[in-house]
Design a protein that fits this description.
49% helix, 570 residues, binds phosphoenolpyruvate, binds magnesium ion, alpha/beta
């Protein structure tokens, strides 16, 4: 059976399905099998919890650092509390099964911590809830998939790919990813590309159609999944896989070349990252800097707020890895499709238009200042960090953020803590409002970076993750192209650098237009760095300007996309 989805991360993977199904933590049908038996079940589940949690901590220590691992080892310590354990045993003595005992006692502790008016205690409540969920999953036998111990050749099939799934993931054994939701610029897609794994997203009912152990082929370049392929189809895709690998290998000649067009004009080519550990990969991929560090992943991969030290260490590590090269770090872009449970964001009717990103941060100055201080400090040695604000829609937001930044500088100076006094503050242009007032925003900030993922979504009023409206969602829409052109020209007129960190920066069809309009910096996923450099290399100014003029003269998206595809494949 051939299933069609969205081509989200290029390459071909062949393997066997491992399905990650949402866990149902309903224990109402679990029988009570006597005091001793229930106590033994509880004890075994806690042992298993400790074993899994220690293994996760080891992986996280390697991938993210000791502070992140401490959260998990702290959970083991919490659950080892003898008083808490005796309370669970008492509940069993009173006739509760192990699940009910764990649920009620841990629930009671979570509520107790949550009621205390102290941020640290409330974070502990989140930890206890996390322990409860994971312990109940073990007791109910629903926590089947251990992502750190997948068999080789696994094709992961899930509703969605989340950052916490990727943290524990044993990537070497994963051949591909299939999800039921998400578009080309959704976070599942971004994570898959960062992991360099072939991925096809938005396959409706994938978890119903595919069972554990089914043979699967994932063609992330074409957006095709083949379920239980025959030998001939496997052979065909193995040869496509080889072609793809050869194409990647052919790009190696661009690794040490400067990013210049055929006339010798230079551009900056940076990489987008989602964690400090990805900076190394970015540096090795040939990127000349970091054009977007999505810091929300640092907040999502955990159960409580990362404090100033944790944040400082992450930003400082990237600054050091990229010493001598620019590192643009985006402040917390929470909300919309990026939920962070412990922040207690309220459910909203329209989360994409709601209390998110810079709006949320400005409403929580005490939380925002922790991040700003960490950024200021992290840039003290290399002076290569720049701060970027997400989802800006008006001048006031930039001014308020700058005011907080100045307060942080003052506080750090008073405490004699070193920081980068000259740190640049930039604005992400990813809303129609920001694009329309780009001239005004340019006077308030030091640089622009165009976020086409959201700019396309908001300009076209089309959900970036909804496969049903996917056809409208493309940067080749005349409305989006005009918007991009106007932003670059406003930045140029004001004399500030303009970059692009949305996925469109790596689109071969768009690259000639961006060069014509004078984009200074392209920031793409690490896996796309060399291909983007190769595209930039091939164009002379006279050609990219002719193509741009022709493309802008066309009034339909199909006309533009068709013309550009034909022009770049010549
Ligand atoms: C964008 O919107 O283009 C962008 C780069 O940010 P994100 O994909 O994280 O929303
Ligand atoms: Mg965005």
């Amino acid at each position: 059976m051939v299933l069609k989805g969205i081509n989200a991360s290029a390459g071909v993977g062949l393997g066997r399905a491992v399905c990650i199904r949402e866990e149902k933590l309903d224990y109402s049908a679990v029988p009570y099998s006597g005091k001793e038996a229930e106590k033994a079940r509880l004890k075994d589940a806690i042992d298993e919890f400790n074993r899994r949690t220690s293994a996760m901590a080891v992986r996280i220590r390697e991938q993210a650092g000791p502070k992140e691992a401490e959260i998990l080892t702290g959970q083991i310590t919490m659950l080892a509390d003898p008083f808490m354990f005796s309370q669970m045993q008492e509940a069993i003595d009173g006739g509760s099964c192990a699940e009910a005992a764990a649920d009620s006692i841990l629930g009671m502790y979570a509520d107790m911590f949550a009621a205390v008016d102290d941020e640290l205690m409330r974070q502990r409540a989140t930890d206890v809830r996390d322990i409860r969920t994971r312990l109940l999953s073990i007791l109910l036998g629903t926590a089947g998939v251990d992502l750190s111990a997948l068999p080789a050749g696994t094709i992961l099939v899930a509703r969605d790919l989340t950052p916490s799934m990727t943290v524990g993931l044993n990537k070497e054994n994963v051949a591909g990813i299939v999800t039921e939701t998400g578009g080309r610029t959704s976070h599942s897609a971004i994570l898959a590309r960062a992991l360099r794994l072939p991925a096809v997203l938005s396959i409706p009912k994938a978890l119903e159609l595919v069972q554990d152990g089914d043979g699967l082929i994932v063609d992330g370049s074409e957006g095709v999944v083949v379920l239980n392929p025959d030998a001939r189809t496997r052979g065909e895709y193995l040869s496509r896989q080889k072609d793809h690998q050869e194409q990647i290998a052919a790009l190696e000649i661009y690794r040490d070349k400067p990013t210049a067009d055929a006339d010798g004009k230079y551009y900056h080519l940076y990489a987008n990252i989602g964690s400090a550990s990805e900076a190394e990969d970015a540096a090795q991929s040939g990127a000349e800097g970091i054009g977007l560090f999505r810091t929300e992943f640092l907040f999502m991969d955990r159960t409580s707020l990362p404090d100033e030290t944790v944040q400082y260490e992450a930003y400082h590590a990237v600054s050091k890895t990229m010493a001598g090269k620019e590192v643009i770090i985006r402040t917390l872009d929470v909300g919309g499709d990026k939920a962070i449970d412990y922040l207690g964001l309220e459910q909203e009717e329209n989360p994409f238009l709601g209390h998110r990103a810079i709006r949320y941060c400005l409403s929580r100055p005490e939380l925002f200042k922790v991040q700003l201080r960490a950024l200021l400090r992290a840039g003290a040695e290399e002076k290569n960090i720049k701060i970027m604000l997400p989802l800006v829609t008006c001048v006031e937001e930039v001014r308020s953020a700058r005011e907080l930044l100045e307060q942080c500088k003052k506080e750090l100076a008073e405490a004699s803590i070193p920081f980068d006094k000259e740190i640049d503050l930039g604005v992400m242009i990813e809303t129609p409002a920001a694009a329309l007032i780009a001239d005004l925003l340019a006077k308030e900030c030091d640089f622009f970076s165009i976020g086409t993922n959201d700019l396309t979504q908001y300009t076209m009023a089309v959900d970036r993750g909804n496969a049903k409206v996917e056809k409208l969602y493309t940067p080749f829409q005349p409305a989006v192209l005009r918007s991009i052109r106007n932003v670059i020209s406003a930045g140029k007129r004001a004399g500030i650098p303009v970059g692009m960190c949305g996925e469109a920066a790596a689109d071969p069809g768009l690259i000639p237009l961006l060069m014509c309009w004078g984009l200074d910096e392209f920031s793409v996923s690490a896996a796309s760095v060399l291909a983007t450099r190769a595209q930039i290399h091939r164009w002379h100014e006279k050609d990219f300007c002719r193509i741009t003029e022709e493309a802008l003269g066309l009034s339909t998206v199909s006309g533009v996309a068709g013309y550009l595809k034909a022009s770049v494949t010549k």
